[in-house]
Amino acid sequence: MRTTLEFELLATPKAAPDLRHHLREHGFDVRLCATELLTNVIDHLGEGTPVTVRVIGAATRHGRTRIEVTDPDPRALPVLLSATAADESGRGLALVNALAERWGVEQGPDRKTVWCELRN
């Protein structure tokens, strides 16, 4: 059974633990990827940016879960960086890249959605 959870929220530091709490039925990797994609919005578009977070897929051992984070800026595209041990940032998308089977970006005229898919 596929389920869809959808949250309309403002990208703030407090939103990350709240999102993890709402996704408590899902595994650690799903919660981590969702909060990393949310944190990217905070870091690159600014605190208070309105976002929609969707998690599609059941919290079961079999199948896939898709995480989507949609924000209102189609131009600010995520970039996979190679952070060094001394860097204080730049690891979020690298974590998503390491945990997800695949990830990408869908652009619209007034928004973008960064998504990833994980095997449960």
Please, could you describe this protein's structure?
- This protein is α+β, with helices and mostly antiparallel strands.
- The chain has one domain: Histidine kinase-like ATPase, C-terminal domain (Heat Shock Protein 90, 2-Layer Sandwich).
- The protein has 3 helices and 5 strands.
- The protein has helices spanning 15-22, 28-45, 92-99, and strands at 4-11, 49-56, 64-71, 102-108, 111-119.
- The protein has a 5-stranded antiparallel β-sheet, with helices on one face.
- Strand 4 (102-108) and strand 5 form a beta hairpin.
- Helix 1 runs antiparallel to helix 2 (28-45).
- The protein starts with a strand and ends with a strand.
- The mean pLDDT is 88.
- Keywords: ATP-binding, Kinase, Nucleotide-binding, Serine/threonine-protein kinase, Transferase.
- Residues 29-115 form the Histidine kinase/HSP90-like ATPase domain.
Task: Give short descriptive properties of this protein.
120 residues, alpha+beta, Heat Shock Protein 90, 5-stranded antiparallel sheet, 5 strands
What's the structural blueprint in terms of helices and strands?
Elements (H helix, E strand, L loop, with lengths): L3 E8 L3 H8 L5 H18 L3 E8 L7 E8 L20 H8 L2 E7 L2 E9 L1
Antiparallel strand pairs: 1-2, 2-3, 3-5, 4-5
